[in-house]
Sequence to fold (252 residues):
Amino acid sequence: MSADGARPHVLILGGTTEARRLAEALAGDPAYRVTTSLAGRVAAPVLPPGETRIGGFGGPEGLAAWITAHRVTHLADATHPFAERMSFNAAEAAALTGVPLVALRRPGWSPGPGDDWRFAGSLAEAAALLPDLGGRAFLTTGRMGLHAFAHLADTWFLVRSVDPPAAPVPPRLEVLLARGPFTLDDERELLARHRVDVLVTKDSGGSATAPKLTAAREAGIPVLVVRRPPVPAGVPEAGSVRAALDRLRAAD
Ligand code: NAP
Fold:
């Protein structure tokens, strides 16, 4: 499957820890050329090894054109489970070019004993449910989705993000600029210091941001969990970097 006798070229659609781990594994293998693509949302991203490119492609057609121009032989969608548009674009571009695609998705979280979790199908639904659950919310759904909560004038929000959020944002808002991972002690201290009485999160999965869930359980506060959008139909999923590597190699 190599392109004109050259090394196989894997394009990783990135922006996650798993994408970086996949790039590290492939960049350490001289048999592969690897390029990671980032959306450019974070001002100073941690760049993975291998080649990188930053910014949108211009929809599925733009991605397909990039794949063809750069002789990409394998596509790995390792974007965040909530980057729905990009995952759709990846599926479309794979269909247009015939390049094999794997979606790398870390497993979601599940509640355990002592957890008080409520579920929402979208950020808008979470905003509708929130006022009945608490008045001081730790909102960890990302700075890009804050607009969904902007109309909630009676709720106080604590938001933590790498870069400052842009308007529209809720009127009663405190922003904490920080980059994870965060420890359980960090999260316990944060919930107590700000007298948080409800946590809002996407079902992102992974260990880097999971301590907030433990801290919420210990503090006896409810967690409002936004469910993941589905992976596009027909796209094979890998639940770990190892499984994604196996799939990519099997498509050689
Ligand atoms: P999105 O809504 O699915 O995508 C919007 C547009 O951004 C896409 O149509 C594409 O533009 C561009 N884009 C997205 N990911 C890209 C990538 N890896 N490389 C090049 N262009 C990309 O995405 P999003 O939810 O805003 O997420 C943007 C990035 O942040 C992703 O890389 C994702 O992994 C990361 N991230 C997202 C979340 C989250 O909760 N959504 C959390 C953590 C990290 P074109 O159509 O012009 O190609």
Summary: The chain has a mean pLDDT of 95. The radius of gyration is 20 Å.
